[in-house]
């Protein structure tokens, strides 16, 4: 076991340290999870539902504590952190209904009865990134438990605190301590062991496309099931016929939420050329008025970046000669601050192609609908996006043409727990959330029962 120091990104103060699990600890956890899973799967569906509702209730009683932990560990503004803790509760509550709804089918066949069952997979490994720690962990935990599995979670190295606390709250709610286990550690140790351990039957990975490819490659050796939620470079397409004032006023929130450390960030704004100048005039005050500062303060809209190393990476996209149109403000002094920044680069610039994962947005003009769709799709990613227009036909035409998993028209919302979420192309594989996800944590079993024909009675 080794330990890693955790740092408050808004103050650079050391918060403490967390012990890292090694391979032997993962193997021990898998063995205990296997037995816990058998006990869990034997419970009546209604009992599993009740246990998940109890877990949700305990989370509800600790929303303030979880939010404060996320403010300290990740630098999320308090309002966002409270929403995240509430989302954990709501997702648990939503999937608490699933154990009683995992119905199979009865299929008409000759000479018997054919029925399907949705069997749990066994032990599921969930690997999470640092940008929305407790929320993303729960999107894996809740449906996997609901389907009768045990779950091991490896949180990101920098931000494990809320996930560790969730594990404790599950035990407080009455769940078997071996059923949901949190294993902080290195990706190359704990994460990789989830991939190579034969008794981990599915890996849910959320993180960079680069590491996601490694996970998928490793999983192939055992034909292990994977769900991948990877990077994004989403477009916010602004047509001339839209409510331009609203499009400009909301564009900063669409990309600078969580300081741009959001896989769904609309980090490429595409604006119809005829309204480009007017849009930029409206966007400037909106960007300059984003309140960047102490994440614990209620008025704060944007906090710091997660770490010094990450700030360096983001800053590399804004060199001294970068085409900066305008910037917002950020505190000076300790903390990994970076101001909201608007770039107007060439279409071929690397700031247009790469996922920067910080508060940097590019704005490009387009000529017509076909050009907008071509630009929006000119990326290896396909996670989310927004379309601003008051023309209903255009809204549908463009929504259907953009190669992306989650689109919103005249808004920037994309993740609701009751609707499916995930990416096209290199943004991922499979879907999370929505009503069907528990089925993705099961194997379908088909059983045929022969029925003897009754001999013809005379
Ligand atoms: P990352 O890929 O560096 O790390 C993600 C997780 O994988 C961490 O827990 C890390 O320790 C672990 N890991 C690292 N190497 C591993 C290995 N060889 N085997 C197994 N696990 C390993 O990503 P990050 O920097 O933590 O997060 C940012 C990225 O996550 C961005 O690209 C972002 O777009 C993406 N993301 C995607 C979604 C989505 O739903 N599509 C959501 C949030 C974040």
From TrEMBL:
Catalytic activity: succinate semialdehyde + NADP(+) + H2O = succinate + NADPH + 2 H(+)
Transmembrane segments: none
Residues annotated as domain Aldehyde dehydrogenase: 4-447
Pfam families: Aldedh
SUPFAM superfamilies: ALDH-like
Any GO molecular function: succinate-semialdehyde dehydrogenase (NADP+) activity
Gene3D superfamilies the UniProt entry points to: Aldehyde Dehydrogenase, Chain A, domain 1, Aldehyde Dehydrogenase, Chain A, domain 2
Active site per the UniProt annotation: 229
Keyword match Oxidoreductase: yes
Family designation: Belongs to the aldehyde dehydrogenase family.
Protein name, per record: Putative succinate-semialdehyde dehydrogenase [NADP(+)] 2
UniProt source species: Mycobacterium asiaticum
């Amino acid at each position: 076991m080794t330990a890693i120091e955790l740092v408050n990104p808004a103050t650079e103060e050391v918060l403490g340290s967390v012990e890292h699990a090694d391979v032997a600890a993962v193997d021990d956890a898998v063995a205990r999870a296997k037995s816990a899973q058998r006990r869990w799967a034997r419970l009546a569906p209604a009992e599993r539902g009740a246990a998940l509702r109890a877990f949700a209730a305990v989370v509800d009683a600790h929303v303030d504590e979880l939010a404060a932990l996320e403010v300290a560990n990740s630098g999320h503004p308090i309002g966002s952190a409270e929403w995240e803790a509430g989302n954990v509760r709501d997702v648990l509550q939503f999937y608490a209904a699933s154990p009683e709804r995992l119905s199979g089918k009865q299929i008409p066949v000759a000479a018997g009865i054919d029925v399907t069952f949705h069997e749990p997979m066994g032990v599921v490994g969930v690997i999470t990134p640092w940008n929305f720690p407790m929320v993303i962990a729960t999107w894996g935990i809740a449906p996997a438990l609901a389907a009768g599995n045990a779950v091991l979670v490896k949180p990101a190295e920098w931000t494990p605190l809320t996930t560790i606390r969730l594990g404790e709250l599950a035990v407080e709610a009455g769940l078997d301590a071996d059923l949901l286990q949190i294993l902080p550690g290195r990706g190359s140790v704990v994460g990789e062991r989830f991939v190579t351990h034969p008794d981990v039957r599915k890996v849910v990975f959320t993180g960079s496309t680069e590491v996601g490819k490694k996970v998928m490659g490793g999983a192939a050796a055992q034909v292990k099931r994977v769900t991948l939620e990877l990077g994004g470079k989403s477009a916010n397409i602004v047509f001339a016929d839209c409510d331009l004032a609203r499009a400009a006023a909301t564009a900063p929130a669409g990309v600078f939420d969580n300081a741009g450390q959001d896989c769904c960030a609309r980090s490429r704004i595409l604006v119809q050329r005829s309204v480009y100048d007017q849009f930029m005039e409206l966007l400037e005050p909106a960007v300059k008025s984003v309140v960047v500062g102490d994440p614990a303060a209620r008025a704060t809209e944007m906090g710091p970046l997660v770490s010094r190393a990450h700030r360096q990476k983001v800053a590399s996209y804004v060199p001294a000669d970068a085409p900066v149109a305008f910037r917002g403000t950020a505190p000076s002094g300790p903390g990994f601050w970076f101001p909201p920044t608007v770039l107007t680069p060439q279409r071929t610039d690397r700031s247009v192609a790469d996922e920067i994962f910080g508060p940097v947005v590019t704005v490009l003009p387009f000529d017509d609908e076909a050009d907008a769709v071509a630009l929006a799709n000119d990326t290896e990613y396909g996670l989310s996006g927004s379309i601003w227009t008051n023309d209903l036909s255009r809204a549908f035409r463009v929504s259907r043409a953009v190669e992306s998993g989650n689109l919103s028209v005249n808004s920037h919302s994309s993740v609701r727990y009751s609707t499916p979420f995930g990416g096209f192309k290199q943004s991922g594989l499979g879907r999370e959330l929505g009503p069907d996800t528990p089925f993705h944590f099961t194997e379908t079993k088909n059983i045929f029962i022969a029925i003897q024909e009754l001999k013809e009675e005379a």
